[in-house]
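SAMPLE LOG
Freezer: B-3
Tube label: C17
Construct: single chain, 129 aa
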Amino acid sequence: MMQSRSFFCPISIFQDLTRATQDWLSAEGFKYQRLQMEDGGIVLQIEKVGGWRKALGMSTVIHIVFHQVENMVNVEIGNGRWFDKAAVGLLSTIVLWPLAITAGLGAWQQMKLPERVYGYIAEYLDESK
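STRUCTURE (predicted):
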């Protein structure tokens, strides 16, 4: 599922916004990969740090795409790896029911993450005025 929001963002602070978002995500415990797109957009692929999180179905992976268009930045956020939560959830309800809790928690955290990211971006841009 892809969500999208646009924010007023002067071209002069676009790079600062993406770097500040990276720093914030890192401080929140995410590792990230930054990719430059041919059209000038920037993609951040983020994942919550901790190998045990994948085994328990709590892995959180999203893609954040920043596109600058004049004095607006369009931010698209898409979820990744929903399948692992569904697979762990199904297996856990049949065999290992305690994993159903962690799979559910992982899915809930991933659902809430886009709102947290959008909130951070809005706050950052508000403070940059």
